[in-house]
Amino acid sequence: MSKSLRKDFFREIKKSLSRFISIMLIVALGVAFFAGLRSSSPAMKDSADAQFDKENLMDIRVVGTLGLTENDLNTIREIKGIKKAEGSFTTDFVCLANSKEVVTKAISMPDSINDIKCTEGRYPEKYNECLASREFLDESGLKIGDYMTLSTGTSDSVFDTLAAETYTIVGVCSSAYYLNGNMGTATVGDGVVDGYVVIPKEAFATTIYTSIYITVDGAQELNCFNDDYTELIDNISKEIREISEKRCDVRYSEVRSQTAEMLTKASNEYNAKKAVAENELAEAYQQLLDSEEVLKASKELFESKKKMLEDAETEIPLSKQRIAEAKQNVEKLKKLRTAAIASQEKAESEALKYYNDWKKLAESGASEEQLKDAEAKYNTIAALAVFYKEQVADYDNKIASATKEIADGEKLIREVESSLANKDQLLSDTEKQLQDAEIQLQRGKEQYEISRQDAIAEFSDAELELREAETRLNNMEVPEWYILDRSSIESYTSYTTDAQSIGALGTVFPLIFFIVAALVCLTTMTRMVEEQRTQIGTLKALGYSKPTIISKYILYAFLASIIGSVIGVLAGEFTIPRLIVKAYSMAYYNLKESIVRLNVYYAVLASALATLCTCIAAFAACYKELKSAPSDLMRPASPKIGKRILLERISFIWDRLDFTQKAACRNLLRYKRRFFMTLFGVGGCMALLLVGFGINDSVSSMVNNQYGKVFKYDALVSVDSTLTRAGRRAMLSDVQDITDISESIQAHRSIIYAANNAETVDDLKYAYLVVPVNNDTFENFVSIKPRKDLIDELELDDEGVIITEKYAELLDVDVGDTIFIRQSESDSLYKEVTVKGITENYIFNYVYMSRSLYNYFYGGEPDGNVLMIKLAESADDEQVAERLLKIKGINSVTLNEETLKDLNNMIGRLTYIILLMILAAALLAFVVIYNLNNINISERRRELATIKLLGFYDGEVASYVYRENVVLTVLGTLLGIAMGVVLHKFVMTTVETDIYMFGRNLNVLSIIISAVLTVVFSMLVNAVMYFKLKKIDMVESLKSVE
Amino acid sequence: MAFIEFNDVVKTYKMGEVEIKAVDNISFPIEKGEFVVIVGPSGAGKTTVLNILGGMDTATSGTITVDGEDISKYNEKELTRYRRDDVGFVFQFYNLIQNLTAVENIQMATQISKNPLDAEQLLGEVGLGARADNFPSQLSGGEQQRVSIARALAKNPKLLLCDEPTGALDYITGKSILKLLQDTCREKGMTVIVITHNSALAPMADKIIKIKNGQVDKILINAQPTPVEQIEW
Which domains does chain B have, with CATH numbers? Predict the structure, then answer.
């Protein structure tokens, strides 16, 4: 390039700075979106990976159906390639706080895998201290320093698993294991885990690990979303699987012997208890007999007493008579005594006289004879006196004893009389006492009977339990290890899906910008070359070579696009991924890392593509002009020829149009490049908006259709499949007792693997096999009918299975084809089944099979390991779930309401994407329409100046120009609808995973909103253009054509 | 008072700090139905006079009356209405809308004016009745200029303002256009003002206004205008 040309080149840029900038900007926009969106998915993955590495997130998790032992852990540690392995305890509990039941996971404090970060407070130091997750605190309303009490939610004791029941919350924690609040399901409470607490390992009273977490050598260095990571993990997983069988056998015999031992112990205990109880019963019986005896004796006593009283009553008159007789006797005796006393006194006085006579005689010396006679006389009389004296004393005695007898007799009579007076009272009292005693005895007998019956029932229950335990022991299956990778973590999986969705967006949308950028560049460069026709001719005439001349324009485009690319890369790669990572870290609030690096690959790719596009456009613009002879070039270009259009032939329309309408119609077809560019720009804007809203439509229709149309049941209950027949009957009747449940059905549900031919074994697609126990009412729970046909429902019968739409797509089969079902991925046997129908379904894949067909294939009745439940309108779902979980034999309850809530949260996250789309669409619309209007106005400057000069008002001039814009906007919008529908379908099928089928339709409302937004964007640009139009100087119309 | 009157019209342009007087105190009268040629060399101020008279620009000072209306006091909207209703323009490069046929180009004018003439009839009068449905690109320069004149006349204006109407045409065609203009003036009594640098056209006018250095050099009244056919250049 000569010096003067170089000068010209830089002056050209300076002079046409707005054109240079417009190319630069559209390139910047295209590059920004391309590089920005493309590097967003890597940025999301980098950020999460960094967070995972920082917190030592496990690579592999091993879970055993019978738990895992220290020996298992040691064996795993020996595998080469394993960096660390650590046992962990996890149990689901219910925590009652502020009269709310919070379902919480209790996790043992890890040593070096799945780090628990303490964000507030401190780490636990004692066995009864814990950390609580933010979700737990939010749900329970507790805070640091509060006490928290765990319960199992069943009759089991917390102390079976933990050393303490109550813990002090000493800190708040977070973990990369739970990027968001989705922590899966639990077997207690309402079945949804609300939060988790972390307690020291020593607080766990068991030595059987729930899971073993493993980190793999060299895994941290890899990005966990990349294939090399997956490969590494798969290899290690395979090695663990190899040792698992042996370990499982060991564990099996261990648990079996333990269980058997426990069973014997329990059985002994039972027998001992039974003996004790029987003994007790016998004693009680003996006591009853004794009491009966006592009662009998008391009764006899009562009878004799009664008899005695009656006897006494009859004796009273007799006694009275005897007393009266005795009294008479006393009187008689008293008379006799008085007579005796008188005789005594007479004898005594006679004796005294005789004595005196005797004495006198003696003194007188009377004869002996006389004396003797006198003495004899005296003695006789004296003896008589003594005789009377003795008689009196005898009477006295007799009287005294008779009097006493009378008094006694009278006393006795009084006593008997008074006792007879109370006789009735006494008798009735005693009788009552006896009756009471009898009743008591009766009661005792009844009590005894009840205790006896109770004991019998209790023992038969216990015996049943023992027998059940025995059956369980006999039926005990060899345990299995589940070797899970990070995709078993709910939040990890949903994050991966989100990152993939963003990646898919990055594939499609920048394309629109690139096409538009190329078109804008082409139009702009063409305009530039047209303007410089004369100069090109002059240079050519002066002898400059074609490449020299063309280089100016290509360099112009090149420079603009390089600067634009740099701006675009910087703006795009640093803002868009950052925004997206930020937006997603709002939903995944435990994601704190934000790794946004300059993605050189996409930067270079985007810049190269953009530059190539503009340079080719510049070349194409020059090419035509350079072919002409210099002399032609130096003359003004002949104006574009006006052409008739088809519409003119329809004269009754054409004649009614005024000249601006006619001109507009012809202009539309005259400037074809502009026509298509506008169409594409406006269409692109419309399509972007439509896809944005369409994503929302599809995802919400997926969710709403699945849970509103396809799944008519409200809850899915998983039933313990080892339940005995009696246990199952009891469980079912318990379920029926819940009045809020309006209807329920038993079904068998298990994972199966299938392909469309017998040979495929590597690429089997999995689905749930569902076999309802009752074919007739199944349609009340799940709608089985094709999506597109409005016709009748499909029926489950022996002709074949009904599979869901996405599954049919995955297996590439249609109605009437055969699929080959295996029970596991390594199952060598397969069943050949005809596909009888394909049913509408969105989430997960299902194969529906009739009961008889199942029987035919698998030789047995379906086991009914799930229960589908429909609830009454007014029912409180969570309450019902809680009640269900308390029933013995029910393992878990999944409420569709809860699932719906989670899914709706996911839809909420789509808002960011939609906003991004609207922003992109608006930018696109502005850039394209502004650019086009600019070119349009500058190209038609003369024409516009003329009509202005001819006396058109500003509004009329504007409407002359806008008419075309309006038509192009309308046409572009229509094209955009078509583009949008196609693009939307493409995006949705790209984003879809094997287990999701998004709704394939767009809402009319979305189309309307998108169209309105497109029109509004276009109108805004036109409003800006109005001022540009006003500035056109009409004097220009007088100037010569350039 | 004359039909059109320029009284002491001054127009100054500011170029940075320098003031340039494009029109320096110009005054002239034009009577109704006169054929006037305003002639002068490049840069004399003809175009400024045309711009001011055509309502495309305003004077810095002085008054311009057209049919008794003082257009120097008009605001932008009134000026647009003035251009729309009272002035018919004929351009050097015809300025037809390429995308409209001959008759549609005329209709463009008739559709916006208050008192339009019939487009087809006018096209017949300028001798292009048969070419009504042709696009400008299908017409020769002279034919395009005829359409342009028809378009100007279609509004039934008070004056016809022609800016170098023959500038882009060859000699014979130029003559025929001038003839058409002269005939229009004579037959319809239209006031026609032709602005040109070609002084050879002067003899055909009723009045010749010579402009030099932004001032009126001379105003000549031609009692006996030369018919177009006899003019040579």
Answer: 4-230 (3.40.50.300)
